[in-house]
């Protein structure tokens, strides 16, 4: 019984607060006590299970119990009044900043220690920009002795600095003048050194001709692709047919670089190229057979293309130059003789292979002639007839038509052992002059037969070119083959030759 009294007193003083997480109470908490065991259990657990009351009544009773609890708490605990906020408190606590570090993946790398940092560059340091706007940085080159008397210049600079304010316009002008004077002097020194080296090169090579740098202006100053190809057909000069003939064991692509640079260097000209291919793969046959093929190819090209050229030029390499000269003697090409313009010979054996100083090349030519049973190699050696004057090369010299051209260009190289230099340039050699045999006399007659009509004609210009190539020390350079094919494969030589000297003869 005492325990029950205590419960009664507790229940009378405090209402039962329903648990928000538990199911709603079916009976309102009242100050009256319950004698049943079920009612006691429900009071201890915080809710009373009964099916008599509805859910709306349960909500109303729960609200009332909460209001009663608030009223009792307000009576027990006195309400403290907050003082009105001051300006300082509003300013201090009006904005509360919470700065959290970004994620680790977005954080910047820590800077290196001070001793490992690079000094500020010119772009990063604003002082350099200010200094540049006032006065350029003085370089150590400006302190060199460009003028004649450096001591007097230093004294003048000191006097000027004492008179004029620093970083004036006169200082900038003087610095620019000194820089220009120094650059001019360095350019003059380079030009003097270049001339000295050039003269030393000529002296060592015993060369009395002209080299590329001796020409003050280029043969062509027009840029590549200046005029499109569609306007070439309307050239007032008409079509210019250029026939390219390859050499021994060659192909039509041998002279591709010459064709390319002629097209690039003459953008306004109507050029039509014929890259001969009829003799490809059969250059070891005799010259008469190869001449017939070339003549038929030229006539077929003119007929099929409907071309009426106003100029006809020939470019030949090595054995191809002999085929060109032989083709010009045929009556089928007689209508083209008045239109002949330029003949460019690249290492052509116009006098055969006589008096070749390379025994290795002579042995190789003899072996190839026996192996291939080549008629062309036999004719170049002038051994196709018992009498030298009845050989093919001698008979060709008697009816040469080189005087029909306006320009005859002969290119040869002393580094070429396949074709002797004197044969490529159509000139006498010491061995031929000293030779008192019938062969030496026939050789001298050949030179006279070719050159006399050319030299006696006032409308023909004969130009000889002695070419020296920068070749590596290889087996091809040793036997002379590298220089023989360099006129075809060396892009540097072809571009320099055409732009400096040879291009004007194709206009």
Explained architecture:
It is a single chain. By secondary structure, the chain is α/β, with parallel strands linked by helices. It has a domain at about 230-505: Rossmann fold (3-Layer(aba) Sandwich). About 45% of the residues lie in helices and about 10% in strands. The chain contains 19 helices and six strands. Helix 8 packs across helix 19 (about 490-500), helix 9 crosses helix 10 and helix 13 (about 390-400) runs parallel beside helix 16 (about 440-455). The protein starts with a helix and ends in a 5-residue tail after the last helix. The model is unreliable at about 1-55, about 120-135 and about 140-150 (pLDDT under 50). This is DUF676 domain-containing protein. It comes from Apis cerana (Indian honeybee). InterPro entries: AB_hydrolase_fold, DUF676_lipase-like, Lipase-like. Belongs to the FAM135 family.
Q: TL;DR of this structure?
A:
With 507 residues, the chain is α/β, with parallel strands linked by helices. It has 19 helices and six strands.
Query: Helical element count?
Result: 19
Outline: elongated
User: Uncertain spans, ≥5 residues at pLDDT below 50?
Assistant: 1-53, 122-137, 140-148
Please give the alpha-carbon distance between the first and last residues: 140 Å
Instruction: Tell me the strand percentage band.
Output: 5-15%
The fourth-level CATH homologous superfamily of the domain at 229-505 is Alpha/Beta hydrolase fold, catalytic domain
CATH topology grouping of the domain at 229-505? Rossmann fold
Strand order of the largest sheet: 2-1-3-4-5-6
- Rg on CA atoms, Å: 53 Å
CATH class of the domain at 229-505: Alpha Beta
Helix percentage range: 40-55%
- Overall mean confidence score, pLDDT: 76
What would you call the structural class?
A: alpha/beta
Got a strand count?
6
Element order: H for helix, E for strand: HHHHHHHEHEHEHEHHHEHHHEHHH
